[in-house]
Amino acid sequence: MSTSGNPINPSRRRLGQALGAGAALTAMAGCATQRVAFGGRPLGRVVVVGGGFGGATAASYLKRWGGDSVDVTLVERNRRFVSCPLSNLVLGGSRRIEDLSFDYQGLRARGVDLIHEEVIDIDAVRRRVRLEAGLWLQYDQLVLSPGIDFLFDEIAGLDRKAQDTVLHAWKAGPQTVALRAQLEAMPDGGTFVMSIPKAPYRCPPGPYERVCQVASYFKAYKPRARIVVLDGNPDIVSKKGLFLAAWNGPYKGMIDYRANALVTELDAAGRTVTTELGDRVKGDVLNVIPPQRAGDLAARMGLLNANGRWAQVDWLTMRSTAVSDIHVLGDATFAAPAMPKSGHMANQHGKLAAAAIIEQLNGRSPVTPVIANTCYSFVDDRNAMHVASVHQWVADKKTLEPVAGAGGLSGAASELEGQYAFAWAQNIWDDMLS
Q1: Residues 314 and 285 in one domain
Q2: Residues 228 and 310 in one domain
Q3: Degrees, nearest 5: CA angle 213-432-41
Q4: Which residue, 262, 290, 318, sits at the end of a domain?
Q5: Judging by beta carbons within 10 Å of its beta carbon (0-12, 13-18, 19+), is residue 230 exposed, middle or buried?
Q6: Same domain for 265 and 235
């Protein structure tokens, strides 16, 4: 369930409650007391850029654990948070995008200063962030949760004009709603074509869950429609057996899955995609998910020191290994071994960074982290399954590694797991936004 309050162990012993399969959150470590500088002035100013699962969590827990000892400002261009987890249910028709959208007033009530603007520059030498309106914000520590952006140029023909009609819907919001409208407008007997990029990408099981949701909708309303899945990977990346059970069970005959079918070219006008092997596939609705990298702000800051796509971090503190005193969270990071790019993991990153910053402000060394991840996938509007893992610090390798025997995988999709999934979502939204 959701963690809250002061998580500190006064004895300074390591604290890291690694929750098992189906658990929503993992408690992070911290300190029982925080010092405040002479005269009541805060020990530090922290600016957090990006109000997603990582950034909102970091802002919340900096205030929960730091109280008046830290000034926290969250800069997020959007006034409402829209959850990517559960957004595939909008495509299936069992949820509305409004059900997954929330404001940031809970963070304001906790004492976080909110600024809804775009960050256009960061001066790491002078430790300041420039906003679109021209204001500079000074910081002692900077937390970036920039999410992902797309490598559109790696797919010939996927230019700006094509992007208006060939959607990825891999950032929950307007494109999710627009893709749902395209599915509704598609004729019965039509073809939905979805492409999956090579891993790593945001939410490993997400594309396969999307296949299930679209199939669920087609089965009810367009029973003659078919789905073609062009996967750039050699096999289903996550929960293979569980997804195949659905595809070969209630959705048998509806799904044409093709591995090693990386899409490299698009003809938007002709509604056709071409794979690297030269196979041409035509569809009534094309859902092309491009290759991904860390968000544009991280790229502009020179933080992408892993394959030119992802930001490497010190896993004790979430600090960038490219630029000092900048902490990078979530999907933008070059993942530790077996660590997925997921909303739950970004939430854990936010707590890890918050704990490290509070420790530093109080003149102490960072605690040894243990964090966990749980990811649910729905095969229809009620039945879901999960995969869970626990990751702990390994000092000699200077990374987080999965704990053998911890976590696990569902035996089968079930309605009970669907109830757990909805509870997980509500808990993590409450945890990060309050």
Answers
A1: no
A2: no
A3: 160
A4: 290
A5: buried
A6: yes
152: exposed, middle or buried (Cβ count in 10 Å: 0-12, 13-18, 19+): middle
The pair of three-digit structure tokens given for residue 39, joined into one six-digit string: 């005269």
Cα–Cα dist 11/368, whole Å: 14
The answer to the question of residue 98 being in a domain is no
Say whether both 195 and 311 belong to one domain: no
Query: pLDDT tens, position by position, for the chain (434 residues)?
Result: 333 333 323 222 222 332 222 333 333 433 434 444 434 567 899 999 999 999 999 999 999 999 999 999 999 999 999 999 999 999 999 999 999 999 999 999 999 999 999 999 999 999 999 999 999 999 999 999 999 999 999 999 999 999 999 999 999 999 999 999 999 999 999 999 999 999 999 999 999 999 999 999 999 999 999 999 999 999 999 999 999 999 999 999 999 999 999 999 999 999 999 999 999 999 999 999 999 999 999 999 999 999 999 999 999 999 999 998 899 999 999 999 999 999 999 999 999 999 999 999 999 999 999 999 999 999 999 999 999 999 999 999 999 999 999 999 999 999 999 999 999 999 999 999 99
Do the beta carbons of residue 346 and residue 331 sit within 8 Å?
Answer: yes
Looking at the structure of the chain, the number of domains it has is: 2
Same domain, 208 and 276: yes
- Do 131 and 234 have their domain in common? no
- Side chain identity at residue 219, one-letter code: K
Show which of 317, 332, 366 is a domain's final residue. 366
Tell me if 208 is assigned to some domain.
yes
> DSSP secondary-structure letter at 40?
G
Is the dihedral angle over the CA atoms 106, 109, 111, 116 positive or is it negative?
positive
The CATH number assigned to the domain holding 301 equals: 3.50.50.60
| DSSP-assigned beta bridge partners for residue 272 | 267, 282
Give the start-end residues of each E strand in 333-426.
Answer: 370-378, 384-394, 399-402, 408-409
User: Could you tell me if residue 400 is inside a domain?
Assistant: no
Identify which of 368, 361, 386, 292 has the alpha carbon closest to the alpha carbon of residue 330: 292
The pTM of the full predicted model, rounded to 2 decimals, is: 0.92
The domain containing residue 45 runs over which residues?
38-77+117-149+294-366
